[in-house]
Amino acid sequence: MKKTTQRPRKLRTLLAATAAGTAALITVVGCSSTGGAPRDTGDGGAGVGSAGTKRLTIAMVTHQQPGDTFWDLIRKGAEMAAKKDNVTLRYSNDPQAPNQANLVQAAIDSKVDGIALTLSTPNAFQAVVQNAQKAGIPVSAFNAGYNDYARMGIQQYFGQDETTAGVAVGERLAKEGAKKAICIIQQQGQVQLESRCAGVRTGLAGGTVENLNVNGEDMTDVQSKVNAKLQQDPSIDTVVALGAPFALTATKAVESAGAKPRIVTFDTNAALVGAIQNGKVAWAVDQQPYLQGYLAIDSLWLQIINGNTIGGGQAVFTGPAFIDKTNVDKVAELAKGGTR
């Protein structure tokens, strides 16, 4: 796959200015999305006033799998921005790329003012992104598609360099003495997940990393495949999950297999914070999904209302950052107040 040659900068000052008034970068919420048809959620974010600008409608279309609470954090950030910006937010999702592309086309046909989308399978979205651009509808990308958004003509991207994040994970594991790891991929073929595991493999110099494909929509499948792999190969000392629900399921697989590998993960939720506290999960890499959702919507509002773009065509990083024993108690305390 062709990769852009751009080298993004960490625009910390810009992030702080854009997200002013939202000290909560990650908000843990209890609800989960059911997917399907778009739902208007323009009133999220209690205590936040609306901008004195015209009412806009912005569609957010993601590759969320059913039951993956990571996306609740994305939506909470998007809802906060929508509330502030006087935006009607239409959220929809489908884990299958062709279906997600159809949702994007439906948003175009309904004449929304802007579209925020994830590019988990970039080539599937080339045509609909071009359709949006021809219709004069601005598009922002976030979470997935770091290597491809620019070549598709999208001006704004919010997320992390998944390869860089993966390398950071691998390097930390190497320092901790890991030698053999499995990397659980819950949606086979999705570029951001493959990049994470590839990065871990690069970072774990001198060790080995094997990808383990599972059905992320079936936790029984996840648990059974991890269990079987651990029983088959007792030399595995590390399980790398690519999402909090899969890390939590991996803890059950480890217990049932009678194995003792460390479990680490990308991304968090409230239950994962507890698992770090009790030692079942060693640590997590956080890409700040609340911030991704917030910026994906707020950037479109700024572009539509005032002609602004964020990042100068380069990606704006929202991670990675580590959550471990040294800071998890602070994260847990913030979670109780509904701000992480």
In helices, the fraction of residues equals 25-40%
Total domain modules: 2
Q: What's the gyration radius in Å?
A: 19 Å
**In CATH terms, what is the architecture of the largest domain?**
3-Layer(aba) Sandwich
Going across the major beta sheet, what is the strand order? 1-3-2-4-5-6-12
Structure described in brief:
The protein is an alpha/beta fold and 340 residues long. 40% of the residues lie in helices and 18% in strands.
Q: Could you characterize the architecture of this molecule?
A:
The structure is a single chain. By secondary structure, the protein is α/β, with parallel strands linked by helices. It has two domains: 56-160 and 289-309, Rossmann fold (3-Layer(aba) Sandwich); 162-286, Response regulator (Rossmann fold). The protein has eleven helices and 13 strands. The protein has helices at 12-18, 70-85, 97-109, 126-134, 162-175, 191-203, 219-232, 244-257, 270-277, 289-306, 328-336, and strands at residues 36-40, 56-62, 87-93, 114-117, 139-142, 156-159, 180-185, 208-213, 238-241, 262-266, 283-286, 316-317, 321-323. The strands form two sheets. The protein has a seven-stranded mixed beta sheet, sandwiched between helices. It has a six-stranded mixed beta sheet with strand order 8-7-9-10-11-13, with helices on both faces. Strand 4, helix 4 (126-134) and strand 5 (139-142) form a beta-alpha-beta unit. Helix 9 packs antiparallel against helix 11. The longest helix has 18 residues, at 289-306. Mean pLDDT is 86; it is low at 1-34.
